[in-house]
Write a structure and sequence with these properties.
- The chain has helices at 18-33, 42-47, 53-72, 90-97, 99-102, 123-138, 177-197, 203-219, 225-233, 235-245, 263-280, 287-300, 304-314, 318-324, 329-337; strands at residues 10-12, 85-88, 106-109, 114-118, 141-148, 151-160, 163-166, 173-175.
- With 339 residues, it is α/β, with parallel strands linked by helices.
- Helix 3 packs across helix 6 (123-138).
- The protein has a domain at 10-161.
- It is 55% helix and 12% strand.
- A hairpin with a 2-residue loop joins strand 6 and strand 7.
- Bound molecules: zinc ion (ZN).
């Protein structure tokens, strides 16, 4: 895995000559190694600012944590250099990204072989975003070379973590993209909550945690009793306070903006895990073992075991149906609740 010196694990495609295979993979390798000369991203790269020492330290820390996870599934470490991580000042990011509409604070691009993120001044919030994007970067990735309507499509994203692209109609369709984001953010949430609960968090994250605690003190005067109570018992609301401070939700509206994104997607994933656990209580080691199967699928690309378990529990074709419903998240949610 990742032996091609980029984030790509595999290249699929019938009748792909060895020479062509080599050419495609070496292009990704080149982009992984040399970000500066990547033509398609010149504009973005021109916007980036130099990373601070603290940001670099946190990127290294996230890499280490994720490599420990990879190790659990027998995978080699894959270390993403800090040079593949680009930070753009908030104002420039908002201009360039059509921020109000996209509401995205960071992204991973496998053709860039890099991550771009809006600057965030709180180390805890920065680490949360960095960890999420690096989980994508570390996840299983496969490309496809295919022929469509007589036209040879060079290479396209065929697999990305839990997600996949399938030929369907003219355009094709993404399957399990909701689950892919849900799982990625759920892992980031666990990472932050572990640090938050730890007696000995990373010193930079400790600083971020302290900021949140101070904000909470400040908020006592600004929010009503019941909201404040909720913010003390619910870590997501702690972070909502922090979000207010970093300018995403300016008026510190509690519960309006959550620190952790993909809330609906995560709720669907957690419902599916709960229901799967209920169905398989006798022959599995606990809810965590089910969650683990999703994480394993993300890193190894092997979704067969998980698909089989879902179909065995709820009937043949269920796994496929969940994937197909990705286009309509409301329907997907209803379907999973009905299992
Ligand atoms: Zn994501």
């Amino acid at each position: 895995m990742k032996e091609n010196f980029s984030s790509i694990d595999r290249l699929y495609g019938k009748d792909v000559a060895a020479e062509e295979r080599k050419e495609i993979l070496s292009m990704y390798k080149k982009n992984f190694e040399d970000q500066v000369n990547h033509e398609a991203f010149q504009e973005l790269l021109m916007q980036e600012r130099e990373k601070t020492k603290e940001e670099i330290e946190l990127i290294v820390f996230c890499n280490e944590k994720i490599n420990a996870l990879r190790g659990k599934y027998g995978l080699e470490p894959f270390t993403i250099p800090e040079s593949n991580f680009h930070i753009v000042p908030m104002e420039k990011w908002k201009e360039g990204m059509d921020y109000e509409k996209s509401n995205t604070a960071a992204f991973f691009s496998n053709s860039l072989q890099g991550v771009a993120a809006m600057e965030i001044d709180n180390p805890l919030a920065f680490a949360k975003g960095a960890y999420h994007e690096l989980i994508h970067f570390h996840g299983y990735q496969a490309l496809m070379v295919a022929e469509r309507e007589g036209r040879k499509l060079k290479d396209y994203d065929y697999r990305f973590g839990m997600g996949m692209f399938k030929e369907r109609g003219e355009e094709g369709q993404f399957y399990f993209e909701n689950m892919n984001e849900a799982l990625t953010e759920e892992l980031a949430k666990r990472f932050i909550e572990n640090e938050y609960a730890s007696e000995n968090p990373h010193p930079l994250l400790q600083k971020g945690i302290q900021t949140i605690r101070n904000l909470q003190e400040e908020a006592k005067e600004k929010v009503s009793g019941s909201d404040l109570e909720k913010s003390i018992t619910n870590p997501e609301l702690y972070y909502a306070l922090l979000h207010g401070r970093i300018g995403i939700d300016e008026d510190l509206t509690l519960g309006n903006q959550y620190f952790f994104s993909y809330k609906k997607q995560r709720s669907i994933l957690n419902t599916l895990i709960d229901t799967l656990y209920e169905h398989n209580k006798e022959n599995c080691e606990g809810r965590e073992a089910i969650f683990d199967m999703f994480v394993k699928a993300h890193f190894t690309g092997n979704i067969y075991e998980l698909g089989k378990m879902i179909d065995r529990s709820f009937g043949k074709g269920t796994f496929r149906k969940i994937g197909e419903l990705d286009e309509n998240i409301e329907e997907q949610e209803q379907f999973i609740k009905s299992l």
